[in-house]
């Protein structure tokens, strides 16, 4: 009892004092006080006592000491705070009484919380170079309590202290000391307190890269082989490439330098020397030298002989009567020698003329009386048009021998009209089949062929037996398409050899043919060739048009585009690229990106265009194309850099990077030429290329066929020839031919259009020549009607 009395003889002690509070909207707040020991507790606000009726009090015992603890609460409304107009904030404190006196608590202020809507300073967008400094200012709106600030990038909170990024808390500025490309984005300043959260206007930050020149390439060879010419070197604006509107490289992308090439000097004969004195054999001689002039710098040697001899005549040689018959004999022998020399010269000239085929026969006795080895040498001069000649059908009909076409009736050689060979295709009646190649026509239709014709057709399929069923079809007289054969089948009436980009066909009947494909699953794909052309807008001096083509990857399709662009003055802006378009029903999207908006404008709502799946998958009427119209702000803006994105939705994407000069384009348009038309020009000359396509010389071909068509005890027959030439499929077809080896050579010629490939033929024949052990002929066909051909060879 004494302890309890001692504790009660102290002043009240506050266990809980009122704390500062904020009124949010119209919700009142509560202020609390707890004291021990206390007989009474009252609140005093702004120097005035709060009425007792507004107090809510309660008592409870301390669980440790057992003493009573008094607690008092009052409510403060928004109206009370607004009605107070004192020199300081609205405040309240507690006063507690005991027997010994009173105690006062701390003052607690009560304020109305708010946050203004408008920022005192919004961050401003900016463009900075790579590695430059980014400074964004932010002043949050006025509020009670003071708002806290955070930065957002693309609506995601930023963390400070990493990667050179800092935030000065005093003025809330965002500072990035070294800008990176990844720092480009939309930045927002966010301010918040207990009342609300505000966001500033978005500041767009662009980190750009100015273009830089790459190293110069090496100087090109001199433009002429003799005399004064020029050589060039070039560089590209790719180190780095301009990005996000960065400036294009200053200066020229190419340089020219004069050059001189020493001209070759062909040799010339000097004067003949005087005749020598007649020898004891009644013969005199004279000579000359190749010194007028001497051959220099790779010039040709003199043609002809350096020495000559003749019999002495006119009594210059005295001989006895007994040797008269010997003189006649020697004269005859001399005449024979001269004849042989002339014959050798004639043969040599003939062989040189044969080099146009790209091959000379060195061993004239080859295949005489049985198989012997061949020796070949290729021509030094190659026809550049033969690079793509294997991709084009043979468009010629020849009166004389031009393998692989054989005719019973002789007709004059002529080039057929191009439109009759590569006509537009009609859509297939069966929706599941699409054309994979142009239709190729050769004829006339009633032509009677004595042997099959080899025809090469380019196609655009990504070849895979699991994804495609590909068929060869022929057009009937009623313009319908009938199936000839499936390319993976074996037949005795037709032969198909499918390669990655072309198909070689042996046909016995003229007509109009095409390759048709049926997709087996969504992984089936066509190859598309993507090309971008550009040209000035004729109706707007500041305008420039970019045209994007998506065509099937065949020479004929791209040739059509190149011809059209040349006629309208277009220029190829980037090397074409190949893209796989899959049969998954998704569309094709074409968009233009990274146009420097400070220099160029583009028509609105025209940055992305789309082709439906059916337009691309089954489209064979005309090339798919779309155009983007741009306009520069002034004539001084001569450089254009952008990207063309071509993608199949949920599929492959290709990017074509455009760097061009409008001045250069306009210059090329005035001249009507362009440096990028090399490939298309070759395509335009493809038809004429077939006239000089590589052929095996007729004399060699006849000896090969005579050797391998005949049965041979050593097993060196046409079957071995096919094996060595890697033609092992569908041998039944060759067995049914009158001359199997001739047809095999025709197919080999269609596959190999480079004169250098003649070396591989020579190697194959050399391997056959080394075969020693005889072999039995394999069973070629299982059908009864073809069993008679198993005896061939």
UniProtKB/TrEMBL annotation:
<keyword id="KW-0472">Membrane</keyword>
<dbReference type="InterPro" id="IPR033772">
    <property type="entry name" value="UPA"/>
</dbReference>
<keyword id="KW-0217">Developmental protein</keyword>
<dbReference type="Pfam" id="PF00791">
    <property type="entry name" value="ZU5"/>
</dbReference>
<dbReference type="InterPro" id="IPR000488">
    <property type="entry name" value="Death_dom"/>
</dbReference>
<keyword id="KW-0812">Transmembrane</keyword>
<keyword id="KW-0393">Immunoglobulin domain</keyword>
<keyword id="KW-0677">Repeat</keyword>
<dbReference type="Pfam" id="PF00531">
    <property type="entry name" value="Death"/>
</dbReference>
<dbReference type="Pfam" id="PF07679">
    <property type="entry name" value="I-set"/>
</dbReference>
<dbReference type="InterPro" id="IPR013783">
    <property type="entry name" value="Ig-like_fold"/>
</dbReference>
<keyword id="KW-0325">Glycoprotein</keyword>
<dbReference type="InterPro" id="IPR000884">
    <property type="entry name" value="TSP1_rpt"/>
</dbReference>
<comment type="function">
    <text>Receptor for netrin required for axon guidance. Mediates axon repulsion of neuronal growth cones in the developing nervous system upon ligand binding.</text>
</comment>
<dbReference type="InterPro" id="IPR013098">
    <property type="entry name" value="Ig_I-set"/>
</dbReference>
<dbReference type="InterPro" id="IPR000906">
    <property type="entry name" value="ZU5_dom"/>
</dbReference>
<dbReference type="InterPro" id="IPR011029">
    <property type="entry name" value="DEATH-like_dom_sf"/>
</dbReference>
<dbReference type="GO" id="GO:0005886">
    <property type="term" value="C:plasma membrane"/>
</dbReference>
<dbReference type="Pfam" id="PF25609">
    <property type="entry name" value="Unc5_NetrinR_N"/>
</dbReference>
<dbReference type="InterPro" id="IPR036179">
    <property type="entry name" value="Ig-like_dom_sf"/>
</dbReference>
<dbReference type="InterPro" id="IPR036383">
    <property type="entry name" value="TSP1_rpt_sf"/>
</dbReference>
<keyword id="KW-1003">Cell membrane</keyword>
<feature type="domain" description="Ig-like">
    <location>
        <begin position="124"/>
        <end position="202"/>
    </location>
</feature>
<dbReference type="InterPro" id="IPR037936">
    <property type="entry name" value="UNC5A-D"/>
</dbReference>
<comment type="similarity">
    <text>Belongs to the unc-5 family.</text>
</comment>
<dbReference type="InterPro" id="IPR007110">
    <property type="entry name" value="Ig-like_dom"/>
</dbReference>
<keyword id="KW-1133">Transmembrane helix</keyword>
<protein>
    <recommendedName>
        <fullName>Netrin receptor UNC5</fullName>
    </recommendedName>
</protein>
<dbReference type="GO" id="GO:0005042">
    <property type="term" value="F:netrin receptor activity"/>
</dbReference>
<dbReference type="Pfam" id="PF00090">
    <property type="entry name" value="TSP_1"/>
</dbReference>
<dbReference type="InterPro" id="IPR003598">
    <property type="entry name" value="Ig_sub2"/>
</dbReference>
<dbReference type="GO" id="GO:0007411">
    <property type="term" value="P:axon guidance"/>
</dbReference>
<dbReference type="Pfam" id="PF17217">
    <property type="entry name" value="UPA"/>
</dbReference>
<keyword id="KW-1015">Disulfide bond</keyword>
<feature type="compositionally biased region" description="Basic and acidic residues">
    <location>
        <begin position="783"/>
        <end position="793"/>
    </location>
</feature>
<keyword id="KW-0732">Signal</keyword>
<feature type="transmembrane region" description="Helical">
    <location>
        <begin position="327"/>
        <end position="350"/>
    </location>
</feature>
<dbReference type="InterPro" id="IPR057755">
    <property type="entry name" value="UNC5A-D-like_N"/>
</dbReference>
<dbReference type="InterPro" id="IPR003599">
    <property type="entry name" value="Ig_sub"/>
</dbReference>
<keyword id="KW-0675">Receptor</keyword>
<feature type="region of interest" description="Disordered">
    <location>
        <begin position="771"/>
        <end position="793"/>
    </location>
</feature>
């Amino acid at each position: 009892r004494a302890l309890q009395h001692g504790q009660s003889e102290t002043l009240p002690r506050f266990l809980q004092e009122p704390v500062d509070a904020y009124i949010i909207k119209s919700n009142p707040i509560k202020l609390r006080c707890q004291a021990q020991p206390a007989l009474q507790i009252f609140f005093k606000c702004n120097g005035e006592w709060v009425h007792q009726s507004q107090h809510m009090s309660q008592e409870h015992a301390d669980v440790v000491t057992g003493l009573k603890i008094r607690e008092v609460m009052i409510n403060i409304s928004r109206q009370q705070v607004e009605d107070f107009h004192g020199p300081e904030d609205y405040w309240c404190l507690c006063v507690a009484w005991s027997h010994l006196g009173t105690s006062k608590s701390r003052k607690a202020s009560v304020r109305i919380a708010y946050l203004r809507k408008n920022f005192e300073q919004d961050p401003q967008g900016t463009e900075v170079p790579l590695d430059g400094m980014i400074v964004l200012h932010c002043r949050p709106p006025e509020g009670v309590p003071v708002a806290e600030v955070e930065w957002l990038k693309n609506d995601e909170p930023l963390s400070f202290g990493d990667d050179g990024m800092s935030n000065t808390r005093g003025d809330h500025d965002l500072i990035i000391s070294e800008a990176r490309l990844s720092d480009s984005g939309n930045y927002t300043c966010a301010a918040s307190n207990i009342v609300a959260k505000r966001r500033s206007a978005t500041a767009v930050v662009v980190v750009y890269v100015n273009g830089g020149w790459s190293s110069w390439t090496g100087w090109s060879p001199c433009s002429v082989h003799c005399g004064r010419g020029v050589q060039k070197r070039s560089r590209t604006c790719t180190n780095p490439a301009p990005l996000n509107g960065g400036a294009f490289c200053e200066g020229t992308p190419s340089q020219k330098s004069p050059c001189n090439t020493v001209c070759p000097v062909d040799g010339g004969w000097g004067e003949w020397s005087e005749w020598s004195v007649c020898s004891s054999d009644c013969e005199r001689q004279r000579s000359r030298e190749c010194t007028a002039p001497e051959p220099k710098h790779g010039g040709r040697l003199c043609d002809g002989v350096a020495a000559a001899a003749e019999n002495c005549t006119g009594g210059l040689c005295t001989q006895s009567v007994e040797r008269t018959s010997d003189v006649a004999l020697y004269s005859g022998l001399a005449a024979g020698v001269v004849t042989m020399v002339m014959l050798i010269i004639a043969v040599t000239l003939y062989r040189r003329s044969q080099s146009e085929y790209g091959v000379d026969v060195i061993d004239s006795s080859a295949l005489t009386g049985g198989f012997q080895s061949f020796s070949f040498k290729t021509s030094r001069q190659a026809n550049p048009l033969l690079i793509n000649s294997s991709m084009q059908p043979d468009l010629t009909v020849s009166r004389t021998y031009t393998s692989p076409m054989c005719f019973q009736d002789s007709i004059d050689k002529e080039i057929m009209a191009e439109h009759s060979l590569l006509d537009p295709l009609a859509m297939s009646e069966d929706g599941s089949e699409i054309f994979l190649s142009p239709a190729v026509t050769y004829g006339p239709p009633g032509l009677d062929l004595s042997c099959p014709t080899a025809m090469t057709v380019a196609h655009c399929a990504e070849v895979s037996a699991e994804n495609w069923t590909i068929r060869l079809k022929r057009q009937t007289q009623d313009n319908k398409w009938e199936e000839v054969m499936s390319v993976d089948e074996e037949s005795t009436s037709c032969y198909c050899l499918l390669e990655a980009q072309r198909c070689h066909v042996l046909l016995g009947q003229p007509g109009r043919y095409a390759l048709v494909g049926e997709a087996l699953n969504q992984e089936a794909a066509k190859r598309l060739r993507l090309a971008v052309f550009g040209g000035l807008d004729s109706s707007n001096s500041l305008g420039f048009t970019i045209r994007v083509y998506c065509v099937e990857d065949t020479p004929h399709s791209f040739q059509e585009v190149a011809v059209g662009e040349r006629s309208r003055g277009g220029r190829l802006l980037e090397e074409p690229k190949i893209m796989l378009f899959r049969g998954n029903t998704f569309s094709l999207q074409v968009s233009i990106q990274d146009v420097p908006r400070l220099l160029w404008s583009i028509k609105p709502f025209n940055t992305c265009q789309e082709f439906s799946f059916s337009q691309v998958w089954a489209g064979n009427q005309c090339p798919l194309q779309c155009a983007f119209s741009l306009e520069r702000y002034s004539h001084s803006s001569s450089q254009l850099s952008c990207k063309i994105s071509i993608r199949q939705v949920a599929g492959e994407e290709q990017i074509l990077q455009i760097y061009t000069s409008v001045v250069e384009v306009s210059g090329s348009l005035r001249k009507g030429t362009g440096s990028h038309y090399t490939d298309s020009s070759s395509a335009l000359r493809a038809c004429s290329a077939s006239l000089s396509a590589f052929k095996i010389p007729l004399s060699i071909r006849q000896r090969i066929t005579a050797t391998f068509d005949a049965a041979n005890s050593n097993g060196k027959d046409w079957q071995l020839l096919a094996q060595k030439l890697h033609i092992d499929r569908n041998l039944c077809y060759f067995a049914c031919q009158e001359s199997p080896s001739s047809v095999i050579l025709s197919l080999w010629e269609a596959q190999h259009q480079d004169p250098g490939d003649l070396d591989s033929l020579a190697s194959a024949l050399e391997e056959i020549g080394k075969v020693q052990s005889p072999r039995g002929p394999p069973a070629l066909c299982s059908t009864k009607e073809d069993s008679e051909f198993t005896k061939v060879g």
